[in-house]
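Might I ask for a little of your time on a matter of protein folding? The record follows directly beneath this note:
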Amino acid sequence: MINLTHFYTGSFVRALTCILLLASPLSAGVRTVWQTLHSYDTIVEPAHNGRQDRHKVNPFLSYTNIGTDFGFVGPAENLIGWQSGQIGVSLGCGADDWAGMWHSLSRLARMKDAKLNFSACYPVEIQSRFQPKINGLRAMIRGRGNWKIDLTDEKNHVLWSESRQLRYDAFTEVTYDLPAELLSSVKYLTWIAEPDSDLDLDRIDLRMQTPDVEDDQWWFLASYAKALTCWTESTGTVRDRAHIDDGSFDSVASTGLFCLATAAAAGEGIVSHAFASHVWRKSHAAIAPLRGPYGLLPHFVSRGKSGALALHPGTEYSTIDTSLFDLSLIIAAKMLKEEKLLQQALSDAKSVRFRDLINENGYISHGVMSDGKTVIPYQWKDWGGETALCLLMMRLSDGAAKAGMSLRARPHQGTGFIAEIQSLFFPDFDSEKADAITGANWRAVRKQLLHDQKNYLMRHYPNAPVTRSGIFGFSAGEHRHGLGYNVGGVDLERQTVLHPHYMLMAAAIDEEPSQLRHVLRGMEQKGWFTPLGLVENVTVTDGESLPMIGSLNACFEAIGAYHFAKKSLRESNEIYHATHEVSELRDAMRIFYP
């Protein structure tokens, strides 16, 4: 997010977003972390040096760093101007010359029941001993004038307030201590520049104390909290992004993966077994009526005119999304020891007619178009986890069906997540044995890709500050500034957008776990790993990041972090244990390992 080199050049465009004060390297302990509430990013460079004459809400970044919304207040709000990475205002001396901004601290501002408890600031479903506490905040600010911060409830009653007369020629960190025990139901943080102020604001951060957990557990906890932020109780589905409205654009794959991550979290005591079972039942009830042609599920769903969930306009019925959802629910039901739910999930999976979606070349189609009739001509042929999961689902539904996969044992263009998605579910692909379909040693291929991912920046950008950080992960996700979707990979040249979710997806096969922990701690210091998980992307050339909370990568990260923690702590991996306990999954796996 923030490049400190600008500070030393006198052009402090952005500042460090999240500083972690570490305890001893591998021990448990309470730590202090900073979660950015709002970094005032823009994607359009100012037409001239200095502040522009009005505030400009970027439609692709019109959300806070915690997945909420924001807005402007005051009779002089139209004077709030912007420049790259900052927002500011110059005010006259009249009584009406004041302006500021409000920031919702939980969901959208109009959702009055969604509030933040500073003594337990993760979603309420997370058990108390795993809850962080907010006990302070800071602002990176310059200029002069009286600047006030209010914390208010849903009715705008002030719960805490402080005004300070500021005068700083350069951006300066201004900190405030907060009485967490008195702030159990906060809806808004509002800052106000009072008359005769001339101020620029770079960002506002919240100071948190973590629960007393080990590093590996913390990374799972933070990643799971990121995913949980996208869960919608009213619909029983998971929003594609945290900051959007309920039922406006929900992900079927994320909903399934969230059920699996929640079952894992319940096993760790992070959430209750009752909540994990509730999520399973609620999600299944929401998604089951949406099965379409061949028993497939949609890629995205949203509320239609009737208010009920339906296929989102223009999206498709997807074989991979169906596989992700059904396999997740099967494994989660087994982990929860819910036999009736397990049998329901197995029945659903067996009803999908994958055999009818195998094309003349012997490969499984991507699915059916939104018209519900036209089979998508694209096929799951490339080597990797997506094709593997579709093949496993095919075998689960029809033990005699056969389909193929490319014999070229390399994920398409070296894209990271493709090599690891299957291992979020199954331990079998850790085997050194050749699989029966392609003859590939999956573990060897995955390790080679991990090596290539780690070395890409050193080969292509040896002098970039990001390279020195040790971060890696050319995968898929939102493009820089959230402008479109980007699929990268190490087999491509001039890649500049990293998607660090791959780091946690591949963590369990990393043969240098100590080095990985070191890199992750460094990412915490740079604000690339926050108390709400990893940022969506990091740009190689300048270290800028996108703070968007996306549910699919959040679920990938949470499950990957779970596997890493279980391996590091040498504890039973309940996801993998469950796959061995379901005989139907064992039978399906014989397509790869007879």
About this structure: The longest strand covers residues 133-152. Residues 5-209 form a domain with the Jelly Rolls fold (CATH 2.60.120.430). The chain has two domains: 5-209, 215-589. The first helix runs from residue 5 to 9.
